[in-house]
Write a structure and sequence with these properties.
Oligomer: single chain
Number of strands: 13
Number of helices: 17
Largest sheet: 9 strands, mixed
Radius of gyration: 27 Å
Structural class: alpha+beta
Number of domains: 4
Distance between the termini: 20 Å
CATH architecture of the largest domain: Alpha-Beta Complex
Strand content: 15-25%
CATH topology of the largest domain: Transposase Inhibitor Protein From Tn5, Chain A, domain 1
Shape: globular
CATH superfamily of the largest domain: Transposase Inhibitor Protein From Tn5, Chain A, domain 1
Length: 436
């Protein structure tokens, strides 16, 4: 419990937490005598190992609390990078980094949450694991270990591919996801959808003529549309300028080197599909912008399609259900950034790495529920020009409530807990916590 709460309040290594015995009541509240340094091996690493042994049973209890037959569950994956030597680890490996982080070894993390984003189970995979390859395993776990039936399995568009949807369906589950751009264009080619059906004010519902139980919810986000167009126009302008410079050179050059240079340029900006280009044997470059292709792309800027085979959901409910995947993304942000700081990971053994990740998930479980309790405080601040409150600010405010040891002429005279001020008392009341 000290390590779980300590992850929320202090972050840092287990050794760092053990060294706070004189400056925090945390260890005392968890049963250790005040002023006595704990043994980090006995009171951190041994309990960490025992906690990992109970992870499955704890997660089964969480699933029992938060997942019921027929409910919507959210599943997503992330990865976090590590530094140092991990020669004996089977988990730490190089893989496709997310967020632009390259050149580091990493681990992959899969998180199951309920429809509100409350975490239920977490699992660590090897660093090179592809998101979609974990789907069948998680579906089997939900069915056989957690015992839920007829659930709606929600996953991102890159995760729930047609093959993975078939795997999930084998367990009697329904699915909720979004289509990738190539899948959208295939529907267009089949004449299932038309660009004019996308509207920013309403959701258009279309059924697949070849598979009527599959419904498509066509949506359009105007702010995303503007952002996508501005980004594309900016990238095209940059690439046009660079291609113009390359093509301007008239002297004889190596064809291979020129091709490599153009390939690297288009690969860096990831818009090679918009260009037609050719390099002669003497290195002369000819290129053109595929305006028709760009115009087709512009028709679908800001457009997205939610796909589901759930009959009981309205179109609005299906779109809202898919958008709730943002709850898992929020969990990952809290786990990986300033709130809980899952890294740096100091452990070198795979079981300790798994236990550390589980500690962080349990810490987020507490933080998630605390945030729910604090919703009135955050809501009152939402439209305030001088907005102030965040979960981190709440923690800092509570840290200034202290237990002071009293002395009279050098003689120990007991202790006293400082009286919470008005703001602190509001926070404590919302959390349902009494001091003393």
């Amino acid at each position: 419990m000290a390590m779980i709460v300590g992850r929320i309040v202090f972050q840092g290594s287990k050794l760092h937490l053990s060294n706070l015995f004189m400056d925090s009541a945390l260890w005392e509240l968890c049963g250790h005598p005040y002023g006595v340094k704990i043994n980090v091996n006995k009171h951190c690493y041994l309990p960490l190992d025992k906690l990992l042994e109970r992870q499955e049973s704890i997660q089964k209890e969480l699933a029992k609390r938060h997942l019921q037959d027929g409910c919507l569950i959210l599943y997503d994956m992330t990865n976090t990078w590590l530094e140092g030597e991990y020669a004996d680890s089977k988990l730490v490996d190089r893989g496709l980094g997310k967020g632009g982080k390259k050149g580091y070894k990493q681990i992959a993390i899969g998180l199951i949450a309920d429809k509100r984003g409350c975490p239920v189970a977490i699992e660590v995979f090897t660093g090179h694991t592809s998101d979609q390859t974990t789907v069948k395993e998680q579906a089997e776990r939900l069915a056989s270990v957690y015992g839920v039936r007829e659930i709606i399995f929600a996953g991102d568009r890159g995760m729930l591919t047609p093959k993975r949807i078939d795997e999930v369906t084998e367990y009697g589950f329904k699915t909720l996801t979004a289509l990738t751009h190539p899948q959208i264009f295939k529907l267009l080619e089949r004449d299932v959808i038309q660009p004019e059906l996308f509207d920013e004010h309403r959701i258009e519902e279309v059924r697949d003529p070849d598979n009527p139980q599959i419904r498509y919810m066509l949506c359009k986000n105007p702010s995303t549309m503007r952002r996508e167009r501005e980004t594309r126009d900016s990238l095209v302008e940059k690439v046009n300028l660079e291609l113009g410079k390359i093509a301007k050179v008239k002297k004889k050059r190596s064809k291979e080197k020129v091709c490599a240079r153009i390939g690297a340029l288009l690969g860096r900006y990831k818009i090679g599909k918009f260009y037609n280009w050719n390099v002669s044997d003497t290195g002369t470059v000819e290129w053109s912008l595929d305006s028709a292709f760009i115009e087709r792309e512009r028709l679908f800027d800001g457009c997205y399609i939610v796909r589901t085979d759930v009959e009981s959901m309205s179109a609005a409910e299906a779109v809202a259900g898919y958008k709730s995947l943002a709850g898992v993304e929020r969990a990952f942000r809290n786990l990986k950034t300033v709130s809980l700081e899952i890294r740096p990971i100091y452990h070198k053994k795979d079981d300790r790495i798994r236990a550390h990740v589980f500690i962080c998930m349990l810490a987020y479980y507490i933080q998630w529920h605390a945030t729910e309790c604090l919703a009135p405080l955050f809501e009152s601040d939402r439209n305030n020009a001088d907005s102030r409150w965040s979960f981190q600010i709440v923690m800092e405010r509570l840290k200034s409530i202290r237990k002071e040891n009293l002395k009279i002429k050098g003689i120990e005279a007991g202790s006293k807990i400082t009286t919470p001020d008005a703001e602190q008392q509001i926070i404590l009341d919302l959390l349902g916590v009494k001091i003393g």
